[in-house]
Design a protein that fits this description.
This protein has about 300 residues and is of the alpha/beta class. It has three domains: about 30 residues, no CATH class; about 160 residues, 3-Layer(aba) Sandwich (Rossmann fold), CATH 3.40.50.1980; about 110 residues, Rossmann fold (3-Layer(aba) Sandwich), CATH 3.40.50. The protein contains ten helices and nine strands. Helix 1 packs antiparallel against helix 2, helix 3 crosses helix 5 and helix 6 runs parallel beside helix 10. The longest helix has 27 residues. It binds zinc ion.
Length: about 300
């Protein structure tokens, strides 16, 4: 149908204008697979990019190029990067106010999918007490509003993977069978991780686990752990004020003996905590692409670290 409209545009004097409106029409077409030879799926974080890659491998390209070492939640894209994302056939959002840049830039409504919408009534609202800013180099960011590390609850990750698959099925109906088979495989992997995470966490209970950064809300809810939080960065040396904040937490949680970092901390930090009677382990949220492995292997490493600390 669109094709014939375009053909008549060729003989029209206002050819360019009509051609533009044809393109508009194609972009809004739910069966958008005809619109482009190599469709692009943009994702705001690595877990969603990983899900999209597994599901759409071979018939769409995943756009996710946030530099290593940056947190996609607070990443600021350039105008050019925003333009590339706006042009994508599908834009996968995390929801829960993730990727702060999306609040101030316009994204095409018909291409946008909020992958956490099936559990939006279970999103965690942060209390005032943990809404504060802290510095990392020259940048600062605040933790307030909704907790956003939704996928560390691997059941929620699975729901987000389903939302990606559903959106892809609508966009690429002829790949429906492939998509459903791949979703089944992906969900099997996520389910195995969820079961293993649950088993590893159960060994730590009822002891408190202290976390370095407020990104573990869904994780602690899913795996039934008490996880008071500091605002530390693994690459910043622990200061005397930091130690005072830790001592404050330990007053109310004297049973804590495991301390969680987002990535490998400075050796000096591990040493300081060891002297204070705490074992350091890494539970990586894996928000950005890992230097090695993929989403599954990072989660397996998280589970192994948790297991080892519970022994
Ligand atoms: Zn932070």
């Amino acid at each position: 149908m669109h094709k014939s409209v375009c053909r008549s545009a060729l003989i029209s004097s206002s050819f360019l204008l009509l051609l533009l409106s044809c393109e508009e029409g194609l972009r809004e077409n739910p069966a958008g697979e005809k619109a482009r030879e190599d469709p692009v799926i943009a994702a705001v974080n690595y877990p969603l990019a990983y899900f999209a890659k597994r599901l759409a491998d071979g018939f769409a390209t995943v756009l996710f190029d946030i530099p290593a070492g940056q947190d996609p939640a607070f990443w600021e894209p350039s105008d050019q990067q925003v333009t590339s994302i706006q042009k994508a056939d599908l834009i996968l959002l995390n929801g829960a106010n993730y990727a702060k840049w999306t609040a101030t830039r316009t994204l095409p409504y018909e291409a946008t999918v909020v992958t956490s919408s099936s559990f939006e009534n279970q999103l965690i609202r942060l209390k005032d007490s943990i809404s504060h800013k802290h510095k990392k180099g020259s940048e600062s960011h605040s933790h307030e509003g909704l907790a956003f590390t939704t996928w560390l609850d691997l059941k929620q990750a699975s729901a987000q993977a389903s939302a990606v698959a559903l959106a892809l099925t609508e966009q690429f109906p002829r790949h429906k069978t492939t998509l459903m088979n791949r979703l089944q495989d992906l969900q099997k992997d996520l389910k195995a991780l969820d079961v293993a995470m649950k088993a590893a966490a159960s060994k730590l209970r009822p002891a408190t686990v202290i976390t370095s950064h407020p990104v573990y809300h869904y994780w602690s809810r899913a795996y039934d752990l008490v996880t008071p939080s500091l605002l530390w960065e693994p690459g910043n040396e622990i200061t005397p004020q930091d130690m005072a904040a830790l001592a404050n937490i330990r007053k109310t949680h004297p049973d804590a003996r495991v301390f969680i970092w987002e990535s490998t901390p400075l050796g000096r930090n591990v040493e300081l905590l060891r002297e204070a009677g705490l074992i350091s382990i890494v539970i990586s949220p894996c928000a950005n692409q890992p230097a090695e492995g993929d989403f599954l292997s990072v989660m397996r490493n998280n589970i192994a670290a948790l297991e080892a600390s519970g022994n």
